[in-house]
Design goal:
Length: 209
């Protein structure tokens, strides 16, 4: 296997942390989004969508999208379980994992892409020719504020996002929170439950990936 990766982006980090939690050693190939390497023919031959990460299997098949890579690797390596041990737990984990992606990472991305000059013609991931919209910077900030509020509410009543143990929901939540912090949208200082959770998940060795 080989993971097509980019160190600076949150989606590939989700895959890296998941792989580390599984105790796997998968070679990586760096593909620079900033330089536009993901839009060059060499990478588009691997993933025509131009997005990262992508997991290339030994037989040449390619799995795209972090949640799909997680599901594939969980099926091959069931322990430690990160996607749910029964239908209800699996549904709760996936709900929070999706929430953190759609309302966390995508919201931060909306803020970041529409503000960051190198993405002036790449407002959407995976392809070029789409201009940024300055008004979406403020909307992104509002969406991130909603995300942080919901995270705080959940973590005030639950040790982890998916329940009482670390799961894929926490991986995506951590990547979303750290992405926001990295571009100037940290969670509010008064969010004590989030701070407790963030310290715990950040202390895991896998979080260094």
């Amino acid at each position: 296997m080989k993971l097509y990766d980019t160190q600076m982006a949150p989606n590939p980090r989700r895959a890296r942390i998941f792989i580390a939690e599984k105790g796997l050693d998968i070679p990586r190939q760096e593909v620079s989004i900033i330089e536009g390497d993901n839009l060059k023919p060499e990478y588009l031959a691997v993933n025509p969508w131009g997005t990262l990460p992508a997991l290339e299997l030994d037989d040449g098949n390619v799995i795209t999208e972090a949640p799909c890579i997680m599901r594939y690797l969980e099926a091959l390596h069931p322990e430690p379980n990160l996607l749910g041990r029964d239908p209800l737990e699996a549904a709760r984990i996936e709900a929070w994992e999706r929430f953190c992606e759609m309302n966390g990472m995508q919201a931060v991305g909306e803020f970041f892409r529409n503000k960051f000059e190198p993405f002036a013609e790449r407002a959407m991931p995976g392809y070029s020719g789409v201009k940024t919209i300055p008004a979406l910077v403020e909307r992104g900030k509002q969406r991130v504020a909603f995300f942080h509020a919901q995270l705080e509410k959940r973590l005030a009543e639950s040790e982890y996002l998916g329940g009482d143990r670390f799961t894929a929901a926490d991986i995506t939540g951590l990547c979303a929170v750290d992405f926001g912090k990295g571009v100037g949208l940290p969670f509010p200082e008064g969010n004590q439950a989030t701070a407790r959770w963030h310290a715990a998940v950040s202390a895991r060795p896998s979080a260094a990936n």
